[in-house]
């Protein structure tokens, strides 16, 4: 019998989901650098509030 714990299954699912997402992005021609710094919520909001519809 398989004795995989729920946490092991969750980690596997998260890893597979991320892998599938990157593969999907590649098929669309979008390259994502995994080493690029991640923006936090405040940085993203400040960037897009400058372009707010008037």
List the SSEs and their pairings:
Layout: H1 6-27, H2 41-49
Q: What would you say about this model in short?
A:
The protein is mainly α. It is built from two helices and no strands. The model has no long low-confidence stretch (mean pLDDT about 85).
Textual characterization of the structure:
The chain has 2 helices and no strands. The protein is mainly alpha-helical. The longest helix is centred in the first third of the chain and has 22 residues, at 6-27.
Descriptive terms for the model:
54 residues; 57% helix; 0% strand
Count the beta strands.
0
| Average pLDDT | 85
Q: Would you identify the regions where 5 or more consecutive residues have pLDDT less than 50?
A: none
Largest sheet: none
Distance from N terminus to C terminus (CA atoms, Å) equals: 61 Å
Beta-sheet strand percentage?
under 5%
Structural class: mainly alpha
Question: Quick one: overall form?
Answer: elongated
